[in-house]
Specification:
30% helix; 141 residues; six-stranded mixed sheet; 6 strands; alpha+beta
Protein backbone atom coordinates (compact mmCIF):
# COMPACT_ATOMS: atom_id res chain seq x y z
CA UNK A 1 0.00 0.00 0.00
CA UNK A 2 2.77 2.46 0.94
CA UNK A 3 4.73 1.65 -2.23
CA UNK A 4 1.62 2.21 -4.37
CA UNK A 5 0.92 5.57 -2.72
CA UNK A 6 4.55 6.59 -3.26
CA UNK A 7 4.29 5.75 -6.97
CA UNK A 8 1.05 7.73 -7.31
CA UNK A 9 2.49 10.75 -5.51
CA UNK A 10 5.87 10.79 -7.26
CA UNK A 11 5.30 9.21 -10.68
CA UNK A 12 1.68 9.55 -11.76
CA UNK A 13 1.01 13.19 -11.00
CA UNK A 14 1.05 15.10 -14.31
CA UNK A 15 -1.59 17.11 -16.15
CA UNK A 16 -2.47 14.14 -18.39
CA UNK A 17 -2.74 11.48 -15.67
CA UNK A 18 -5.99 9.56 -15.23
CA UNK A 19 -7.22 6.93 -12.80
CA UNK A 20 -8.26 3.54 -14.13
CA UNK A 21 -11.42 2.42 -12.37
CA UNK A 22 -12.83 -1.05 -12.00
CA UNK A 23 -15.77 -1.66 -14.29
CA UNK A 24 -19.03 -1.31 -12.40
CA UNK A 25 -17.55 0.79 -9.60
CA UNK A 26 -15.56 3.94 -8.99
CA UNK A 27 -12.74 2.03 -7.30
CA UNK A 28 -9.36 3.19 -8.63
CA UNK A 29 -7.23 0.19 -9.61
CA UNK A 30 -4.45 1.89 -11.54
CA UNK A 31 -3.32 4.94 -13.48
CA UNK A 32 -2.35 5.85 -17.03
CA UNK A 33 -0.52 9.02 -18.05
CA UNK A 34 0.92 10.89 -20.99
CA UNK A 35 4.07 12.41 -19.53
CA UNK A 36 4.56 15.65 -21.41
CA UNK A 37 7.84 17.47 -22.06
CA UNK A 38 9.51 18.33 -18.79
CA UNK A 39 8.09 15.25 -17.06
CA UNK A 40 9.89 12.57 -19.08
CA UNK A 41 13.48 11.81 -19.96
CA UNK A 42 12.47 10.02 -23.18
CA UNK A 43 12.14 13.20 -25.25
CA UNK A 44 12.67 16.94 -25.09
CA UNK A 45 10.27 17.74 -27.92
CA UNK A 46 6.96 19.50 -27.31
CA UNK A 47 5.18 17.28 -29.86
CA UNK A 48 6.32 14.00 -28.25
CA UNK A 49 5.48 12.42 -24.90
CA UNK A 50 5.79 9.22 -22.89
CA UNK A 51 3.00 6.81 -22.04
CA UNK A 52 3.26 5.52 -18.49
CA UNK A 53 0.94 3.16 -16.66
CA UNK A 54 0.45 1.12 -13.51
CA UNK A 55 -2.22 -1.40 -12.63
CA UNK A 56 -2.84 -3.28 -9.39
CA UNK A 57 -1.73 -6.89 -9.75
CA UNK A 58 -5.19 -8.41 -8.99
CA UNK A 59 -6.46 -6.70 -12.18
CA UNK A 60 -3.77 -7.88 -14.58
CA UNK A 61 -4.86 -9.84 -17.63
CA UNK A 62 -8.40 -8.41 -17.77
CA UNK A 63 -7.87 -5.94 -20.63
CA UNK A 64 -7.97 -2.79 -18.51
CA UNK A 65 -4.55 -1.50 -19.52
CA UNK A 66 -4.78 -1.91 -23.31
CA UNK A 67 -8.20 -0.21 -23.24
CA UNK A 68 -6.98 2.72 -21.13
CA UNK A 69 -3.73 3.08 -23.08
CA UNK A 70 -5.49 3.08 -26.46
CA UNK A 71 -7.79 5.89 -25.34
CA UNK A 72 -4.94 7.99 -24.00
CA UNK A 73 -2.91 7.41 -27.17
CA UNK A 74 -5.91 8.59 -29.18
CA UNK A 75 -6.10 11.71 -27.02
CA UNK A 76 -2.38 12.33 -27.45
CA UNK A 77 -2.49 12.21 -31.23
CA UNK A 78 -5.93 13.72 -31.90
CA UNK A 79 -6.31 16.31 -29.14
CA UNK A 80 -2.81 17.15 -27.90
CA UNK A 81 -1.04 17.23 -31.29
CA UNK A 82 1.60 14.61 -30.53
CA UNK A 83 3.66 13.19 -33.41
CA UNK A 84 5.34 10.40 -31.43
CA UNK A 85 4.54 8.63 -28.17
CA UNK A 86 7.31 6.76 -26.36
CA UNK A 87 6.86 3.92 -23.89
CA UNK A 88 9.16 1.55 -22.04
CA UNK A 89 9.37 -1.41 -19.73
CA UNK A 90 12.01 -3.02 -17.56
CA UNK A 91 13.59 -6.34 -18.43
CA UNK A 92 11.48 -9.21 -17.10
CA UNK A 93 8.22 -7.25 -17.04
CA UNK A 94 6.50 -9.48 -19.60
CA UNK A 95 3.02 -8.11 -18.87
CA UNK A 96 4.06 -4.54 -19.68
CA UNK A 97 5.93 -5.71 -22.78
CA UNK A 98 2.80 -7.54 -23.93
CA UNK A 99 0.57 -4.49 -23.43
CA UNK A 100 2.90 -2.41 -25.60
CA UNK A 101 3.03 -5.07 -28.32
CA UNK A 102 -0.75 -5.49 -28.24
CA UNK A 103 -1.46 -1.79 -28.78
CA UNK A 104 1.12 -1.40 -31.55
CA UNK A 105 4.34 0.02 -30.11
CA UNK A 106 7.54 -0.70 -32.05
CA UNK A 107 10.91 -1.55 -30.48
CA UNK A 108 13.45 1.28 -30.55
CA UNK A 109 16.39 0.46 -28.24
CA UNK A 110 17.60 -1.09 -24.98
CA UNK A 111 19.63 0.58 -22.21
CA UNK A 112 21.55 -1.79 -19.96
CA UNK A 113 21.89 0.54 -16.95
CA UNK A 114 18.75 2.53 -16.18
CA UNK A 115 18.60 4.08 -12.70
CA UNK A 116 15.29 3.52 -10.90
CA UNK A 117 15.51 5.97 -7.97
CA UNK A 118 12.18 5.01 -6.34
CA UNK A 119 13.40 1.43 -5.97
CA UNK A 120 17.07 2.32 -5.51
CA UNK A 121 17.99 -0.08 -8.34
CA UNK A 122 19.67 -0.21 -11.73
CA UNK A 123 17.68 -2.13 -14.38
CA UNK A 124 17.71 -2.99 -18.07
CA UNK A 125 15.16 -0.80 -19.86
CA UNK A 126 13.56 -1.37 -23.25
CA UNK A 127 12.16 1.62 -25.15
CA UNK A 128 9.38 1.49 -27.75
CA UNK A 129 7.59 4.14 -29.77
CA UNK A 130 4.54 4.84 -31.91
CA UNK A 131 4.20 7.61 -34.47
CA UNK A 132 0.93 9.24 -35.40
CA UNK A 133 1.20 7.67 -38.87
CA UNK A 134 1.63 4.18 -37.38
CA UNK A 135 -1.33 4.76 -35.06
CA UNK A 136 -3.53 5.90 -37.96
CA UNK A 137 -2.75 2.65 -39.80
CA UNK A 138 -3.64 0.60 -36.70
CA UNK A 139 -7.00 2.29 -36.14
CA UNK A 140 -7.99 1.84 -39.79
CA UNK A 141 -8.17 -1.95 -39.32
Amino acid sequence: MDESLDVIRNVFNGAECYAICEKGSNKAIGAVELKLNGHTDMTEREDECELGYWLGKPFWGRGYMPEAARELIRRGFEELGMTTIWCGYYDGNHKSKRVQEKIGFIYHHTCNEVPVPLLNEIRVGHTNYMTKEQWQKIICF
